[in-house]
Amino acid sequence: MQAIYNLLYEPPIPLKWMGLLIGLWLVGSHIFALAKPGLVKPWLRAFPRNEKLGTVLVVIAFAWTFVIWSCMDLGEFFKIEKHVQIVLVAGCIGVIVHVKEFLAVRSLGFLMILAAAPILDSAFLQEPQTRLLLVAFAYALALKGMFWVGMPYLLRDQIHWILAKENRYRTGAVAGAVYGLVVLGCAMLWW
Predict the structure, then answer these.
(1) Buried b / exposed e across 1-16, counting CB within 10 Å, b at 16+?
(2) Strand, helix or coil at 99?
(3) What predicted TM-score, i.e. pTM, was given to this entire model?
């Protein structure tokens, strides 16, 4: 567990590697969306109510939270570490059993909030101004994640809006791929 925590937080992932990782993910996923719309569009429509994928994502999110809580310096809260670990496990089971509505969206939002911290840590006090591409991406992830956890129907509505017109879908896919290419370029040239 400590090895996972150290990989993500201690020391932060280098800016170059974070940029390469995010850039490749953005380019790959958006190019795939452009190349295979027949596969991606039905999957996107079904995602908000995909209970099986939601269960997997919520287990990952709670496991990530468990790792953070178990490995970080708790200071004077060290006395309640085991109690909170039990609450986290019970909470994970409770969410899986009782929060069936839009579970995939809520757990994706939770993961997005968790993912923002390592991205911000990578860019913290780094020299090139282009690092703000990652900072903006991290804050967008966290903000969207908070909205999707609290109001998961928003993702469903956003998916329907994007898929309603072909040019919206293509524009979104191209914009994501271009942003990924810019991040990749900055990571390879300056970071």
Answers:
(1) eeeebeebbeebbebe
(2) coil
(3) 0.84
Asked if 189 and 181 touch (Cβ cutoff 8 Å), the reply is: no
Give the chain's domain count.
1
Q: Give 16-62 pLDDT, tens digit per residue.
A: 889 999 999 999 999 999 999 999 999 999 999 999 999 999 999 99
Owning domain of residue 54: 2-189
11 φ/ψ sector (left φ>0, alpha ψ -120 to 50, else beta): beta
Token duo for residue 163: 């898929």
Give the number of other Cβ atoms within 10 Å of residue 113's Cβ: 19
Please choose, from the candidates 144, 160, 161, the residue with its C-alpha nearest in 3D space to the C-alpha of residue 49.
160
CA 143 to chain centre: 11
